[in-house]
Amino acid sequence: MKFSTFTLAAVSAVALVACGGGDTSTPTANTPAANTEVPVQQSGNEIRIVGSSTVYPFSIKVAQEFKNKTGYNVIVESTGSGGGHKLFCDSPKLGTPNVTNSSRRQKASEFGKCMDAGIEGVVEVKIGYDGIVVANAIDSPVIDMSMKDIYLAFAKNVPIDDNCTMGPNPYTRWSEIEDFLPDYRIEAYGPPPTSGTRDAFVEIAMEKGAKEIPCLAEMSKTDKDAFKQAAHIVREDGYWIDSGENDNALVQTLTNTPTAVGVFGYSFLEQNSDKVKGAKVGEAKPTFENIASGAYPVSRSLYFYIKKDHVGQVPGLQEYALEFTSEAASGPGGYLEEIGLVPLPDAERTKYRKAVVDMIPYSQ
Question: In a 10 Å sphere around its CB, with 0-12 CB exposed, 13-18 middle and 19+ buried, how is residue 79 labelled?
Fold first, then answer.
């Protein structure tokens, strides 16, 4: 599996000044650029974070701000949400990840693995909201699609009659789904199965889209397993290409292939708005305001998880989490909002801040 890694090492005051207060666009020689492959050496005293590529830029920003304030060492690896939970839940021992980022809630099976491994407490922290966008190059036509269009474009099998007899997806061009969509070959670069973005996209966009087809809507009530098979499996015939966890490479692909689309988080769209633009879904654009209000239909919550038993053993671990949940970071007008995080409502921010202050383990 390909990992993206960002390291903040204990270096001189000159390097701290060079970090520019946490500007991810100007890494120093001691802070490798985001989404580059570098070997990671962990002494056991650094804070080690793995997980979601969507939460990755927010985690890096917090790590930089935290490093500048405290000097604590932080390592952030982008492994995908699924890969992060696997690494995080593998062992309670020091030297294993202290935190995992996730662009979906931890699954019951993952929580169970943590418990089976002897991890005595996992603290769940919701940090905000993000939208999932279908984007294309800035100079390409604007795409205006429904959730049903998303399902018909990306599902492996779709109904071939009104009785929901399922067959291989026959759609090869967008205009075959709706004549007002571009007359381009369907070519979508999206997150792999290990990604929380993939999980959320399937569960939110494709499932809702499937329910816009009457026989599938009925199936969702009468045969949940059959409906899940119909709605949750992404096509494997070359029209959807797993793009890995490197969102920077994906943006470059879209720039070079104007007829292609990519599926990734709104925050990354915001950071690359000079290169790519998001499609309208259900007549709503993927904007900060529409995600915050719920008008944009493909949105999800973002999380990180902490091993409670590492707090007090890994210097700065709880303090890092307190920085992440501070109003200055994840509150309205905070520095994470500036790079695309949609803040939680006041009551939820208070709830998860208390979980960090008191290190309250959660249960499924």
Answer: buried
CA–chain centroid gap for 348, Å, is 20
Token pair, residue 286, equals 């993927």
| Element containing residue 263 per DSSP (H, E) | strand 261-265
- Please indicate whether residue 1 or residue 303 has the higher confidence score (pLDDT): 303
Alpha helices (H) along 285-363:
288-293, 317-324, 327-330, 346-358
Q: In this predicted model, what pLDDT tens digit does every residue of 238-273 receive, in sequence order?
A: 999 998 767 778 889 999 999 999 999 998 899 899
Q: Tell me the HSE value of 11 on the side-chain side, using a 13 A CA sphere.
A: 17
Q: Where residue 282 sits, what CATH number does that domain have?
A: 3.40.190.10
Collapsed DSSP state (helix, strand, coil) of residue 8: strand
Smallest CA-to-CA distance from 249 within 233, 238, 260 is with: 260
Least confident of 8-22, 74-88, 295-309, 342-356: 8-22
Q: What share of the chain is helix, strand, coil (3-state, %, to 5)?
A: 35, 20, 40
Neighbours of 225 (CB within 10 A): 8
Q: 5-16: string of b/e by CB count within 10 Å (b at 16+)?
A: bbbbeebeeebb
pTM comes to 0.77
Rounded-to-integer distance, Cα 357 and Cα 11, Å: 29
Number of domains in the chain: 2
Both tokens of 208, joined, read 């809702």
Angle formed by the axes of helices 317-324 and 346-358, to 10°?
170
Same domain, 55 and 152: no
The domain boundary residue, chosen from 248, 273, 299: 299
